[in-house]
Amino acid sequence: MSPTSSPAEPISTHDYSAPLRVWHWGNALLVLGQLVTILFIKIIVKPKALVPEFQAAAARAGGDLTKEQGMNIARLMSERLWDWHIGIGLALAAFWLYWLVLQLTAPAGQRFGARLRAAAQRYRLAPPAARPDAQHTLLVKLSYLAFYLFISVMVLTGLALTWADDVAWLHGIEHKVKEIHNVTMYLVIAFVATHIVGVVWSEITKDRGLISRMVSGEARKSS
Ligand code: HEM
Ligand code: HEM
Questions:
Q1: What is the pLDDT of residues 66-89, one digit of tens each?
Q2: pTM, entire model
Q3: Ligand 1 atom index nearest CA of 31
Q4: With 188 labelled, which of 63, 67, 106, 197 sits at a CA distance of 20 to 30 A?
């Protein structure tokens, strides 16, 4: 992830601004939080699948719980879990807006678009020996571009779903929007898994200190 570095004097060129670091870790926690809510709703708790167990528990205690009553309890549990998803989702939407504002207000060289263009130019101009490194840097930046697209889709579709019951035209497209929201989740998961493996791999192989620089922002400058 960094260009050339020698064992004697490791050189890093990454310089992460404080606002980008705040965004990165806040956004990472919220994305993981969203995935955890889905894990609970769809896999761990699965409220609707618990209805027969509610009925069995009621019968053991000498009561009688109809399927409909069981479904009502399951619906309450579902709503509680979705409330968490929507709450974290709104925070994620705020972070997304913060990222957009950063892109409009940060010094030109710190904006993602400028860093992506610089990586593309470095790749185009790289001499053959430096090409593999330049190509890797460009591919990593393209993966970030993909993530920024995915998170934009997640936030916009998530907001549409949040207000789908209150706005008639949103209600009309709710089913389609839900499908897009659902499918994009798998792209987000693929990014997160590849990204974490990638940065940890870089950290333990050729770019020591990469992760701590995303925490502290300190970068040794090449001359
Ligand atoms: C849901 C989890 C995460 C998401 C969505 C995420 C997203 C991102 C994005 C979009 C960037 C690019 C920032 C930019 O240059 O514009 C980035 C960079 C980075 N992330 Fe993450 N991240 C996540 C988790 C993590 C974790 C757990 C670590 C540490 C183990 C980490 C370490 C880094 C580092 C070191 C960079 C800079 C890499 C480079 O310069 O190419 N990230 N992350
Ligand atoms: C990485 C981020 C996110 C992931 C992985 C995620 C995942 C999901 C999944 C898998 C569903 C179920 C769709 C279905 O039933 O077919 C869902 C529903 C939903 N999501 Fe997200 N989501 C994310 C971000 C957001 C955001 C930013 C919001 C905005 C507030 C949001 C709001 C909603 C709402 C309102 C629903 C529908 C809940 C319901 O059916 O009652 N999500 N999400």
A1: 999 999 999 999 999 999 999 999
A2: 0.92
A3: 1
A4: 106
